[in-house]
Fold this sequence. Notes:
Elements lengths: L2 E4 L2 E4 L15 E3 L5 E3 L7 E6 L6 H14 L5 E7 L3 H11 L4 E5 L5 H5 L16 E5 L5 E6 L9 H6 L2
Parallel strand pairs: 5-6, 6-7
Antiparallel strand pairs: 1-2, 3-4, 5-8, 8-9
Amino acid sequence: MASVLFGGNPxxxxxxLPKTGSKAPDFxxxxxDLSIVNLSDFTGSKLVLNIxxxxxxxxxxxxxxxxxxxAAALNNTKVLCISRxxxxxxxxxxxxxxxxxxxxxxxxxxGKFGKDYxxxxxxxxxxxxHARAVIVLDExxxxxxxxxxxxxxxxxxxxxxxxxx
Length: 165
Protein backbone atom coordinates (compact mmCIF):
# COMPACT_ATOMS: atom_id res chain seq x y z
CA MET A 1 0.00 0.00 0.00
CA ALA A 2 1.40 3.38 -0.99
CA SER A 3 1.33 6.52 1.12
CA VAL A 4 1.83 10.24 0.52
CA LEU A 5 2.47 13.17 2.81
CA PHE A 6 -0.54 15.21 3.83
CA GLY A 7 0.30 18.13 6.10
CA GLY A 8 3.70 16.54 6.65
CA ASN A 9 2.19 13.26 7.86
CA PRO A 10 2.26 9.94 5.98
CA UNK A 11 -1.26 9.13 4.77
CA UNK A 12 -2.17 5.71 3.41
CA UNK A 13 -3.71 5.06 0.03
CA UNK A 14 -5.70 1.97 -0.90
CA UNK A 15 -3.08 0.40 -3.16
CA UNK A 16 -0.38 1.06 -5.74
CA LEU A 17 -0.34 2.76 -9.13
CA PRO A 18 -0.55 0.45 -12.15
CA LYS A 19 2.87 -0.90 -13.13
CA THR A 20 4.76 0.48 -16.11
CA GLY A 21 4.26 -1.90 -19.05
CA SER A 22 0.86 -3.13 -17.82
CA LYS A 23 -2.51 -2.52 -19.41
CA ALA A 24 -4.25 0.34 -17.60
CA PRO A 25 -7.45 -0.65 -15.80
CA ASP A 26 -10.59 0.30 -17.70
CA PHE A 27 -12.65 3.10 -16.23
CA UNK A 28 -16.07 4.73 -16.42
CA UNK A 29 -15.90 8.44 -15.70
CA UNK A 30 -18.41 11.27 -16.10
CA UNK A 31 -17.87 14.09 -18.56
CA UNK A 32 -19.16 17.62 -17.92
CA ASP A 33 -22.50 16.74 -19.55
CA LEU A 34 -22.80 13.67 -17.27
CA SER A 35 -22.28 11.24 -20.14
CA ILE A 36 -19.93 8.36 -19.36
CA VAL A 37 -16.62 7.64 -21.07
CA ASN A 38 -14.43 4.55 -20.87
CA LEU A 39 -10.72 4.11 -21.40
CA SER A 40 -11.51 2.40 -24.71
CA ASP A 41 -13.10 5.64 -25.96
CA PHE A 42 -9.58 7.05 -26.17
CA THR A 43 -7.94 4.11 -28.00
CA GLY A 44 -5.60 5.46 -30.68
CA SER A 45 -4.56 8.52 -28.65
CA LYS A 46 -1.76 8.88 -26.18
CA LEU A 47 -3.11 9.88 -22.77
CA VAL A 48 -1.83 11.89 -19.84
CA LEU A 49 -3.96 11.15 -16.79
CA ASN A 50 -3.60 14.16 -14.48
CA ILE A 51 -5.18 12.91 -11.25
CA UNK A 52 -5.79 15.10 -8.19
CA UNK A 53 -7.98 15.55 -5.09
CA UNK A 54 -10.02 18.62 -6.09
CA UNK A 55 -9.96 21.25 -8.79
CA UNK A 56 -10.79 23.82 -6.09
CA UNK A 57 -7.36 23.63 -4.46
CA UNK A 58 -4.49 25.80 -5.65
CA UNK A 59 -2.04 23.02 -6.56
CA UNK A 60 -4.70 21.04 -8.41
CA UNK A 61 -5.81 24.13 -10.32
CA UNK A 62 -2.19 24.88 -11.23
CA UNK A 63 -1.69 21.36 -12.60
CA UNK A 64 -4.79 21.68 -14.80
CA UNK A 65 -3.66 25.11 -16.08
CA UNK A 66 -0.11 23.88 -16.75
CA UNK A 67 -1.18 20.74 -18.59
CA UNK A 68 -3.69 22.85 -20.58
CA UNK A 69 -0.84 25.08 -21.78
CA UNK A 70 1.47 22.18 -22.57
CA ALA A 71 -1.25 20.08 -24.22
CA ALA A 72 -1.73 22.64 -26.96
CA ALA A 73 1.57 21.56 -28.52
CA LEU A 74 1.02 17.79 -28.28
CA ASN A 75 0.22 15.59 -31.26
CA ASN A 76 -2.24 12.70 -30.93
CA THR A 77 -2.35 13.23 -27.16
CA LYS A 78 -5.21 13.97 -24.81
CA VAL A 79 -4.83 15.21 -21.24
CA LEU A 80 -7.52 13.83 -18.94
CA CYS A 81 -7.86 15.72 -15.66
CA ILE A 82 -9.52 13.36 -13.19
CA SER A 83 -10.91 14.04 -9.71
CA ARG A 84 -13.98 13.29 -7.58
CA UNK A 85 -15.29 16.83 -8.08
CA UNK A 86 -18.77 17.15 -9.50
CA UNK A 87 -18.64 17.58 -13.29
CA UNK A 88 -20.36 20.96 -12.88
CA UNK A 89 -17.47 22.27 -10.75
CA UNK A 90 -14.94 21.01 -13.30
CA UNK A 91 -16.86 22.67 -16.13
CA UNK A 92 -17.19 25.95 -14.21
CA UNK A 93 -13.46 26.03 -13.46
CA UNK A 94 -12.37 25.34 -17.04
CA UNK A 95 -14.91 27.82 -18.41
CA UNK A 96 -13.80 30.59 -16.04
CA UNK A 97 -10.14 29.89 -16.84
CA UNK A 98 -10.65 29.52 -20.61
CA UNK A 99 -9.09 26.04 -20.60
CA UNK A 100 -9.81 24.15 -23.80
CA UNK A 101 -6.90 21.72 -24.22
CA UNK A 102 -7.73 19.33 -21.37
CA UNK A 103 -10.68 17.01 -20.76
CA UNK A 104 -12.06 16.98 -17.22
CA UNK A 105 -13.56 13.72 -16.00
CA UNK A 106 -15.21 12.94 -12.69
CA UNK A 107 -15.14 9.83 -10.52
CA UNK A 108 -17.90 11.25 -8.32
CA UNK A 109 -20.37 8.40 -8.85
CA UNK A 110 -18.54 5.47 -7.32
CA GLY A 111 -14.90 6.32 -6.72
CA LYS A 112 -14.05 3.11 -8.59
CA PHE A 113 -11.34 4.81 -10.65
CA GLY A 114 -9.48 5.83 -7.50
CA LYS A 115 -9.81 2.35 -6.06
CA ASP A 116 -8.73 0.59 -9.27
CA TYR A 117 -5.74 2.89 -9.77
CA UNK A 118 -4.58 2.61 -6.12
CA UNK A 119 -4.82 6.32 -5.37
CA UNK A 120 -7.77 6.58 -2.98
CA UNK A 121 -7.00 8.19 0.39
CA UNK A 122 -7.86 5.70 3.14
CA UNK A 123 -7.46 8.10 6.06
CA UNK A 124 -7.21 11.76 6.98
CA UNK A 125 -9.22 14.78 5.83
CA UNK A 126 -9.14 13.65 2.17
CA UNK A 127 -10.50 10.14 2.82
CA UNK A 128 -12.18 8.92 -0.36
CA UNK A 129 -10.53 11.50 -2.62
CA HIS A 130 -7.69 10.83 -5.07
CA ALA A 131 -4.03 11.42 -4.37
CA ARG A 132 -2.06 13.52 -6.84
CA ALA A 133 -0.60 11.36 -9.60
CA VAL A 134 0.25 11.39 -13.30
CA ILE A 135 0.01 8.34 -15.52
CA VAL A 136 0.99 8.30 -19.20
CA LEU A 137 -0.58 5.72 -21.51
CA ASP A 138 0.26 4.84 -25.10
CA GLU A 139 -2.34 4.52 -27.87
CA UNK A 140 -3.32 1.01 -26.70
CA UNK A 141 -3.68 1.92 -23.02
CA UNK A 142 -0.32 0.53 -21.91
CA UNK A 143 1.23 2.36 -18.95
CA UNK A 144 4.42 4.14 -20.04
CA UNK A 145 5.04 6.36 -16.99
CA UNK A 146 3.69 6.87 -13.49
CA UNK A 147 4.30 9.40 -10.77
CA UNK A 148 2.66 9.40 -7.37
CA UNK A 149 3.46 12.86 -6.03
CA UNK A 150 5.00 12.25 -2.60
CA UNK A 151 3.67 15.42 -0.95
CA UNK A 152 0.06 16.27 -1.76
CA UNK A 153 0.88 19.99 -1.82
CA UNK A 154 3.57 19.56 -4.54
CA UNK A 155 3.03 19.76 -8.28
CA UNK A 156 3.78 16.77 -10.50
CA UNK A 157 6.89 16.56 -12.67
CA UNK A 158 5.34 17.87 -15.89
CA UNK A 159 8.44 17.45 -18.03
CA UNK A 160 9.04 13.83 -17.01
CA UNK A 161 5.43 12.98 -17.86
CA UNK A 162 5.57 14.73 -21.24
CA UNK A 163 8.94 13.17 -22.06
CA UNK A 164 7.35 9.74 -21.60
CA UNK A 165 5.09 10.41 -24.59
